[in-house]
């Protein structure tokens, strides 16, 4: 391939020729580097021997001359490439140049630069028959930002509304493959979300870990449910420390991304009397935070942070609870945080939360982490509630109330003017800002395994409160780079099927100059080649999501897709159903080609899942159409017939789900029934309509993540 992801800063095609090769022969005379680093990095090139010294190399072989430089200007031919001479130290460390022809010459300043050069070399090589070919190019390259991170899930609301899906179920080998992919795309930090029951052993508080968690899984062999005691893969076979070492060897730092007194282990489920106290029983989510005035809770949180730090992480990022409509109403919390809140920016519960959290950070969490590892970076996601536009003195007070070396992993996003972000840059300084609100993937991951990425994926985008998409994420990255921020962060709350979110963070953290309109096609071509790229992008752009909760029969409010379909949507649904048939064929063809290609085979599951999503989507269109017929019918017999049809389609949807995914049933350890798949709630509603004398009045909410939004 001649396209490289992320797109290099300068890329010159020297001629149209290519060099065929059967081996790479490294000449390390000018570099003091372990051969192992190079072998490890190029291990994914199956069938291409990598040797050190000319003896015994299969022919034709291409020599790779590796030169470590001490002076940037000489190394990178600054004038020729029009490079800035005053690059920051991190940019010089990561910079590299590579020239390919009959030989390859790599120049770099620091180890990270060589790793980046090898990532580029891997992508330049392509297979031709049994051999490889290299195009003739000259590249000089360095990144925009020091921190190019992605946030992915290791445990996400584990034990609160799920056991896990996607990367939450990965073991060591899947994580290693993911780290290799991140490294190849020059991502240099992975933040692993750990919300809910802890995904690691914690001997002092074993009840707070995701161990022997009872759940029913579909036993396909017997066509029946079977109860198992599930333990997180990192508890069944501890691998996190090994993964951290693996990542470090590839230039990647590993952070944990946890709640700030929010979903910290299963403690709030086991010790119900230590939860924060809501002002009334109207608020369903009373299990997310612990009362911050209870000394037992403070002791637990301090110990949990020490344990977390002992895992060997490079950093820990804290996120404030998304509950902003109340704060602990116990007598002590009202005295400690409520009265103070009234004197400043409005007497809001969110403000009481901020004050309590900052005190907890200063007095407990920060010292606990520092006591184990003084170098562990500490980040925070705070002040995220509406109104998002906040007065400068309010931001300054928050800044002055926290240790100055805490970095920010949140700054304003796509729902407010860019001037609000600029305010944060001025108050906190660009050197502290490592991320903005780029939660396109979080939005996608809330859809019960259905596909969302672009606004064009929605049936009626104009009827939704839509701020998030991959394009909105890119705008945030570009803004952060424009203001010289320390880093960017992309979310991968669901990765399989959604790899373009990874590609966008990789591209724009490294080089924000690529026009947004060109990005999807460029990135997909770089990885899959031009033909597959066009097919994948067609599926990505044209897939039309209709979530089961959009059926008018679903009584529960789903804040992420608010439009309930009605008779006016019938033409759109029919059109989407027809298009879906074509997209299914297309994604099936992509899957077949990917599975047959030894270099692309590792992406096959992404397309199998996309195919599955579209099959399900076809059933959901029919379910919605049947529901509309039910709503419109006047005759009771006809209504019942339509209702039975809806019931059968709901079962058909769920049969697909339970055959494909592990964790598909409601969870209720908090006392509130929750499931990210609307099947169960629809089944309850349909059952109540069919048999009103035996009503089930217990709703099954559509994800823990929506509970804080139900009052909007
Ligand atoms: Zn309290």
Task: List the main descriptive attributes of the protein structure presented here.
712 residues; alpha/beta; Chitobiase, domain 2; TIM Barrel; 3 domains; eight-stranded mixed beta sheet; seven-stranded parallel beta sheet; 23 helices; 17 strands; globular; binds zinc ion
Describe the overall structure.
With 712 residues, the protein is α/β, with parallel strands linked by helices. The chain folds into three domains: 10-141, Chitobiase/beta-hexosaminidase domain 2-like (Chitobiase, domain 2, 2-Layer Sandwich); 147-522, Glycosidases (TIM Barrel), CATH 3.20.20; 538-709, no CATH class. Helix content is 40%, strand content 16%. It contains 23 helices and 17 strands. Strand 11 (213-219) and strand 12 (224-230) form a beta hairpin. The site of zinc ion has 8 residues, from helix 11. Zinc ion binds at residues 276-277, 291, 293, 328, 330, 332-333.
Tell me the layout of helices and strands.
Blueprint: E1 10-21, E2 23-30, H1 35-41, E3 50-52, E4 61-68, H2 72-76, H3 78-81, H4 89-94, E5 96-100, E6 104-108, H5 111-124, E7 126-128, E8 131-141, E9 147-158, H6 172-184, E10 189-196, E11 213-219, E12 224-230, H7 233-236, H8 240-248, E13 253-260, H9 267-270, H10 295-310, E14 315-320, H11 331-341, H12 349-372, E15 377-381, H13 392-400, E16 407-408, H14 418-428, H15 440-445, H16 470-482, E17 487-492, H17 499-510, H18 519-528, H19 530-542, H20 570-596, H21 604-632, H22 636-660, H23 679-690
Helix pairs in contact: 6-8, 10-12, 11-12, 13-14, 16-17, 17-18, 18-19, 19-20, 20-21, 21-22, 22-23
């Amino acid at each position: 391939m001649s396209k490289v992801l992320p797109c290099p800063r300068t890329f010159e095609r020297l001629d149209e020729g290519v060099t065929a090769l059967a081996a790479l022969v490294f000449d390390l005379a000018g570099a003091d580097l372990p051969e192992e680093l190079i072998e490890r990095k190029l291990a994914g090139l199956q069938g291409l021997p990598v040797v050190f010294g000319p003896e015994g190399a299969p022919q034709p072989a291409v020599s790779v001359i590796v030169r470590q430089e001490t002076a940037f200007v000489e190394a990178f031919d600054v004038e020729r490439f029009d490079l800035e001479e005053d690059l920051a130290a991190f940019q010089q460390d990561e910079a590299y140049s590579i020239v390919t022809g009959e030989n390859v010459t790599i120049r770099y300043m620091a180890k990270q630069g060589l790793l980046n050069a090898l990532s580029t070399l891997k992508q330049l090589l392509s297979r031709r028959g049994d051999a490889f070919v290299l195009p003739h190019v000259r590249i000089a390259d360095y990144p925009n930002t020091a921190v190019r991170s992605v946030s992915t899930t290791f445990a996400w609301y584990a034990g609160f509304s799920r056991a896990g899906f996607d990367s939450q179920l990965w073991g060591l080998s899947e994580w290693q493959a993911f780290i290799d992919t991140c490294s190849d795309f020059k991502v240099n930090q992975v933040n692993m979300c750990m919300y809910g029951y802890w995904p690691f052993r914690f001997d002092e508080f074993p009840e707070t870990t995701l161990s022997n968690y009872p759940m029913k899984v579909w036993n396909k062999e017997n066509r029946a449910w079977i109860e198992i005691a599930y333990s997180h893969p990192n508890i069944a076979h501890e691998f996190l420390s090994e993964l951290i070492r693996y990542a470090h060897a590839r230039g990647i730092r590993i952070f944990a991304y946890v709640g700030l007194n929010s979903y910290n282990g299963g403690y709030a489920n086991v010790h119900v009397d230590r939860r924060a106290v809501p002002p009334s029983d109207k608020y369903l989510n009373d299990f997310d935070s612990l009362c911050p005035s209870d000394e037992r809770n403070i002791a637990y949180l301090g110990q949990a942070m020490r344990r977390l730090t002992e895992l060997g992480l490079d950093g820990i990022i804290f996120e404030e609870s998304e509950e902003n409509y109340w704060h602990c109403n116990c007598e002590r919390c009202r005295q400690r945080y409520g009265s103070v809140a009234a004197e400043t920016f409005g007497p809001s519960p969110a403000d009481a939360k901020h004050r309590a959290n900052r005190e907890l950070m200063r007095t407990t969490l920060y010292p606990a982490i520092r006591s184990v590892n003084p170098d562990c970076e500490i980040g925070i996601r705070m002040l995220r509630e509406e109104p998002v536009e906040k007065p400068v003195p309010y931001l300054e007070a928050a800044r002055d109330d926290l240790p100055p070396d805490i970095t920010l992993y949140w700054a304003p996003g796509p729902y407010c003017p860019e001037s609000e972000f600029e305010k944060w840059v001025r108050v906190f300084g660009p050197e502290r800002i490592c991320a903005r609100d780029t939660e396109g993937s979080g939005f996608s991951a809330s859809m019960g395994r259905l596909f969302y990425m672009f606004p064009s994926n929605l049936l009626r985008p104009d009827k939704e409160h839509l701020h998030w998409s991959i394009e909105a994420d890119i705008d945030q990255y570009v803004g952060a780079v424009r203001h010289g921020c320390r880093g960017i962060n992309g979310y991968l709350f669901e990765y399989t099927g959604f790899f373009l979110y990874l590609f966008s963070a990789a591209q724009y953290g490294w080089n924000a100059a690529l026009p947004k309109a060109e990005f999807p096609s460029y990135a997909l071509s770089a990885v899959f080649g031009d033909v597959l790229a066009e097919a994948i992008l067609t599926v990505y752009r044209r897939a039309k999501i209709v979530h089961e909760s959009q059926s008018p029969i679903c009584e529960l409010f789903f804040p992420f897709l608010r439009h309930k379909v009605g008779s006016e949507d019938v033409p759109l649904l029919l059109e989407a159903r027809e298009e879906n048939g074509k997209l299914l064929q297309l994604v099936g063809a992509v899957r077949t080609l990917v599975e047959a290609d030894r270099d692309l085979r590792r992406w096959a599951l992404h397309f199998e899942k996309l195919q599955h999503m579209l099959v399900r989507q076809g059933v959901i269109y029919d379910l919605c159409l049947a529901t509309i017929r039910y709503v419109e019918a006047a005759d009771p017999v006809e209504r019942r017939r339509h209702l039975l049809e809806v019931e059968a389609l709901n079962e058909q949807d769920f049969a697909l789900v339970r055959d494909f995914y592990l964790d598909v049933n409601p969870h209720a350890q908090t006392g509130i029934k929750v499931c990210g798949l609307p099947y169960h709630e629809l089944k309850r509603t349909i059952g109540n309509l069919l048999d009103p004398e035996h009503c089930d009045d217990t709703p099954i909410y559509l994800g823990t993540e929506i509970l804080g939004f139900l009052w909007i």
